[in-house]
C-alpha cells in the first residue's frame, strides 16, 4: 500500500515555492487536517480495492483453470465449491460496500465538511 | 428458430400500458428542464436511494437480464461467473470513482478529465470516447430488441425487405426513446429507469419464487434437475470458456474488462450528477449494489430453472436470450409471459434513453459549448443543441439497429466495457490521483486505449476467420486470437498514460488547479451542490 500512497500528488514540497499568494484550495491542501483526511481516505479505498480485486481475480482464475477445485461437490448435494465461492463474492461485495459506507460516514464526512466550510468561507 | 408463443395482443397491451404511464410521468416532470443543470442532471435533485434504483435500471440492460439468464441456462456455471463480474465491478465505482466524480464535475465525464488540463483537446477526446462507447452499447440494445420482438409479438422479419415488422418495432423503440429524452431530459429518463428497475426486480422475484416453489424450495434439487433435464454438466466449470487455453484467457480478459469497465461507462458516470452531494452519490452506489446483487441471485435461479423446466432442446446457443421469457411462459402461461415481455421492452427503452441523453450531453456540453464555443455558448443554446443531438442519436440508433438486426452484435457490449476500462478508467484515475498527470498523458491513454481496443477487435475472431464472425469463415484476417481485448488494452492504456505524461512533461503542472481538484474531490468545496436552489 505504501507505494500507492507515495505516487499520487501527496507531497507538498514541490508546490511550496510556485505561488506567492496561495488560493483557498492550496491553503487547505497544505493543511495537516487535509493531509490526515487524505491519508485515512486513500489508505482505506486503496487497501479495499486491492483486496476485492485480488479476491475476484483468484475466483475467476480458479473457475477458469482449476476445474478440479471448483467442480468439487459439497457433501451429497449438487452444490459445488465454485458455486459457494461465487456466492461468497456476493457476500463480500455487500460487506465491503457496507463497511466502506459506515467508515466514510463515521470517519470522513465530518472532517470533509469542516474543510469544505474552511474553503468556501474564503472563496 | 423463434416460434411465436403467448398472446401478442396481451404482450403489446401490457407494453402499451408501460409506455402510457411513463409518458405521463415524463410529461409531468418535464416542465423544469430548460437549464443545462435541469436537462443533464435533473437539477441534482434525486436522493441517493432514488438514484441507486435508477442506476440499477440503467445498468441491468437486456444483455444482463436476458443474456445472463440465458448464459446460465445454456452454459451453467460459466454464466454465473460472468454475472459476478457485473456485480463486483460496482466496488470500483463505489471506492474509487463515484464521490470524487460527483464533487469535481457537473454534467459529463469530460468535466472531470479536463478539470486541470488543456480544455479543448481533452474535452474533444472525452466526447469521442463517450460517443463511441454509447454508440456500441446502443447498437447492441437496438439490435437485441429486434430478435426479442419476433418471439414476443409474433412480428417476423421478411428477408430482403427493409420495411418489415421487426424494423418497424425497432423504429418505435427509437422514437419512444427520443421522446423521453427530448421532453423529459434527465429527470424523465431517471423516472423511466426507476419504474423499469422496480418492474424488473419484482418480475424476476416472482419467477424466482415460482421456480423455487416448483422444486420444493430445494435449490440443490433444482440444480440436479437442470443437469438431468439438459443432459449437460451445467454445474461444472468450462462449458462455455473451457474449450482451450485461448477461450480461458478470453474469459479472464472479459472479466477484467467488466470489473474495471463499469466505473468508466459514461452513462453510468453521468448518473452520479443527478444527486446533490458526494454522500448521496455514495448512498446511490450502495443501493445499486444491493439491488443488482439480489437481481443476479434471482438470475441464478432463473437460469438453472430454465434449464431444469424447459423441454430438452428448447434452448440453444442461438436463442439463449429467450430463456427467461420462455421460462415465464412455461410456468405462468400467457399472462406471466406478457408481463416479462413488457419488462424486457421497458428494459431496452430505459437503457437506450440513458445512453441517448449521455451522448447528447457529451456532444452539447463538451464539443459544442466547450470546444466550439470555447466555454461561452449563448444562453439556452447548449440545451437546444443537446435536444437536437438526441434527435440525431435517435435516427442513427434506428438505422443502425435495423441494419444490425439479425447480426451477431453481442460482442458490442463487451467492446463497450473494454473501451470504458481502457480509455476512460485509467484517465479518470490518473487525473484524480496522480499529480504529474498532464494533457499529453490523458490524450495518450484515451486515444491509445480506444485505438487498441478497436484495432484488436477488427483483427479478432469476432470480425473474421470463424463460423460466427461478421465476415464468416472464408475471410480470415484474425491475427489476434481473443474476442475480448481487455487483457491487452487495459494494461497498455495505463502504461500509455504514464509514457504520454513523461513525453509531455515540459508542460508545467498547474499547482493551483491540482489543489482545487484534490480539495474539491474530497470535500465537495465549490462543487455545484446548491444547484437545487436555482
UniProtKB/TrEMBL annotation, chain A:
Keyword Transmembrane attributed: yes
Ranges of biased composition (kind: Low complexity): 13-24
Transmembrane ranges? 43-62, 82-101
Arranged from A to Z, the UniProt key words for this protein are: Membrane, Transmembrane, Transmembrane helix
One protein family per Pfam: DUF485
* Keyword Transmembrane among record annotations: yes
Disordered, as annotated region: 1-30
Please name the InterPro entries in this protein's record.
DUF485
Q: Which domain of life is it from?
A: Bacteria
The protein's name is Uncharacterized membrane protein (DUF485 family)
Automatic annotation (TrEMBL), chain B:
InterPro entries (alphabetical) = Na/Glc_symporter_sf, Na/solute_symporter, Sodium:Solute_Symporter
Query: What subcellular locations does the record give?
Result: Cell membrane
Q: Which domain of life is it from?
A: Bacteria
Gene3D superfamilies, per the entry? Sodium/glucose cotransporter (1.20.1730.10)
Which keywords describe this protein according to UniProt?
A: Cell membrane, Membrane, Symport, Transmembrane, Transmembrane helix, Transport
Q: Would you kindly state one Gene Ontology biological process term found in this protein's UniProt entry?
A: plasma membrane acetate transport
Q: Which GO terms describe its cellular component?
A: plasma membrane
Q: What is its main location?
A: membrane
Gene Ontology molecular functions: acetate transmembrane transporter activity; symporter activity
Give the similarity note: Belongs to the sodium:solute symporter (SSF) (TC 2.A.21) family.
The name on file for this protein is: Cation/acetate symporter
